[in-house]
Specification:
Distance between the termini: 44 Å
CATH class of the largest domain: Mainly Alpha
Number of domains: 2
CATH architecture of the largest domain: Up-down Bundle
Number of strands: 6
Order of helices and strands: EEEHEHEEHHHHHHH
Helix content: 40-55%
Number of helices: 9
Structural class: alpha+beta
Strand content: 5-15%
Mean pLDDT: 91
Amino acid sequence: MTRFISADFLGPQQRVGTPNGYKASILLEELKEAYGLQYTTQGINIGQNIQKEPWFTAINPNGRIPAIVDHDHGGLAVFEGNAILSYLSRRYDTDRLLSFAPDDDDYTRAESWIGWQHGGLGPMQGQANHFVRAAKDKIAYGMQRYVGETERLYGILDARLRDRDYVVGPGRGKYSIADIALLGWANALGGTTIPIHQFPSVQAWLARCWERPAVQRGFRVPSAPASSALQPQEGEAAQQAKELKQLVDEAKKQYGYVYSSP
């Protein structure tokens, strides 16, 4: 039995999971469907800094989610979303339905794209979301810097998916942990004011992944996202998004930003 510990942030009007947490929950749901793997979850209210309490830092010294404790393997604690993807697929995806054998070149390709997400897309999109939405002061340089870098990175992903269904694998690719590493972030792209239709191959890939029942279930653990990049915003949320995009566009103009992605 694996115990999965994820974020559950309670805000003024919403209760949402975080992009990194969905890496673990989606893979666990895929493993449950494929192999019958059972797990339990414990939500963490990061708005109350529960992840900083001693019991949690004993599992993850960095005080961040997600983290898991594998009670079927001596109570081993694993933290960092990408390490969790690697661990769970290596130990429990015995038929390589969601991953690749270590001697397969696609194993290394998957590692490369997962590393790209971990070191690039996740941090840049996280900063974009912070400067656009969370920061009290709307700093023009910060907004255009991180939104611009997020756009550049999604341009790379869009090019990768232009003639593929999934990020890694032979032919048009195979759904794998390389895709799972990206799903939570791509689903939250709208928070940066970047419309997903700007990247049609990413949009089609995300919609394709959303068709999987385990993905749908994984996105509901510990609670469903407040919105999806695939769904148009409405009402007050749409108006706020429009105003924020105007601020970002003005910041881009102020600093001479021009979109470019290889």
